[in-house]
Amino acid sequence: MVRPTAAGWEMAAIEPRRDPEPAKSGKTSQKMLLALPKGLVDPGEKPGQTAIREVQEETGIVAVPVAKLADIKYVYVRSWGDGQKVFKIVSFYLLRYESGTIDDISAEMRIEVKRALWVPLDEAARKLAYRGEREVVGKAREYLTRG
What pLDDT shows up at residue 76? Predict the structure, then answer.
């Protein structure tokens, strides 16, 4: 989700809430991790609708769709429960800011999201934790440059 500013495009990112990891010194350390909003498709919902809903739930921003950017496919092993391999496809959409205040999210969402913030689009690829998401930001920049 992006918005234009006088200084250039900004992108909404989230800092997911996660358990602190024990550091080698025995103290807990928690490096800031930034990610793009995302979530599961609800019954009867199309992926584009999911993107709009998840952005609003996780950032507080109402956005309108611009274009589908990419599908990222990956496999991971569950670290809980049965330890099974999970194949996942995440569809990413370019959305444009319409209204709302960043980080104005419900108390229930604070279980998942520590905070939501604006990040200059030119810096986003360096700040996001996941390679696939960094690639999606590159696609968004290309789209907006052509635009």
Answer: 86
Q: What is the pTM of this model?
A: 0.84
Which regions in the chain score pLDDT beneath 50?
28-29
Distance (Å, rounded) from C-alpha 107 to C-alpha 130?
26
Spatial separation of the C-alpha atoms in residues 120 and 127, rounded to whole Å: 10
pLDDT for 100 equals 98
Pick one of 1.20.1050.10, 3.30.590.10, 3.90.79.10, 3.60.40.10 as the CATH number of 2-21+29-146.
Answer: 3.90.79.10
Give me 142's structure tokens.
């290309």
113 with 14: CB under 8 angstroms? yes
Contact 117, 51 (CB under 8 A): no
Q: Which two tokens stand for residue 104?
A: 């104005």
Convert 92-143 into a string of H (helix), E (strand) and C (coil).
Answer: EEEEEEEEECCCCCCCCHHHCEEEEEEEEHHHHHHHECCHHHHHHHHHHHHH
